[in-house]
């Protein structure tokens, strides 16, 4: 048997309510034969297709043997982000409707950390942006030379890139961030990845041309309010609670910056993983909509998860969509 070691989230991760650092995980009760791997990065249609004809598997039929002692931990993100809220809703659905299993959402630094902890066996489910997941599977970017054995349950909602600037800094585009104090999100998070790529697409070196700070969303919001940051990046679903809190209390101090104009150099380097969309005016009650860059979100599992469990988790994701929507409206997207 191999001991499942606990990996703590970074010290700057904010926790709330019942989301506390979990104690050491129990050792695995045994190892199962490796089964056929799930297809990499399923499209929405295929993911929904997996749920068709689920009448043979009911909530009342317990699994013959619970994987990982029946404990399912979900790697999410900052407590003021969508991953954490949606993950909490998904964990509740799993605990209530998958006999023999208990699930809980864990706050983390998001995509990159989530994949690492998933592969290390510290988590059973991980939320990730599609660009980070693609890098992990291909062994490039932050995972250069180290392809990660992860697979996707489903492609879910899209993340919108929020670039927020101080109004008095008179920043009109990403290139104007040269020399500015900029938060690019938690280290190795999906926000950190896309922020670096957008800065590069605008002709800036992310580590030399801006005064870069890698901060969690709660820390970033606090520093924007304190005036110790000039700009921030965040990639999240709509609405992101932390962003709504920042913009709602100081619309005269902060503004969303359009970045959709960078899609061509971004796509030329990184392919079609990115698209453009308008961040609706009504989302944060701004003066007008904001053209921005979007990227899909994936729900990932380890490559050695039993096929039946992966099927059941996918079935729950779509069968109880209304329950997930109660946690956050992105579940209806």
Description:
The chain starts with 43 loop residues before the first helix and ends in a 6-residue tail after the last helix. It folds into two domains: 44-157 and 298-332, D-Maltodextrin-Binding Protein, domain 2; 159-296, Periplasmic binding protein-like II (D-Maltodextrin-Binding Protein, domain 2, 3-Layer(aba) Sandwich), CATH 3.40.190.10. It is 31% helix and 20% strand. With 333 residues, it is of the alpha/beta class.
Beta fraction of the residues?
15-25%
Mean pLDDT: 84
CATH superfamily assignment of the largest domain? Answer: Periplasmic binding protein-like II
CATH topology of the largest domain: D-Maltodextrin-Binding Protein, domain 2
Give the CATH architecture of the largest domain. 3-Layer(aba) Sandwich
Number of helices: 11
Basic shape: globular
- Model regions low in confidence, pLDDT < 50 over at least 5 residues: 1-58
Terminal CA distance reads 41 Å
Radius of gyration: 20 Å
The domain count comes to 2
Please bin the fraction of helical residues.
25-40%
Q: Major sheet, described briefly?
A: 10 strands, mixed
Concise overview:
The chain is an alpha/beta fold and 333 residues long. It has helices at 44-50, 82-97, 111-119, 130-138, 190-201, 217-226, 241-249, 263-270, 281-284, 307-319, 321-327; strands spanning 71-75, 102-106, 125-129, 150-166, 181-183, 211-213, 231-236, 254-256, 274-279, 290-302. The protein is globular, with a radius of gyration of 20 Å.
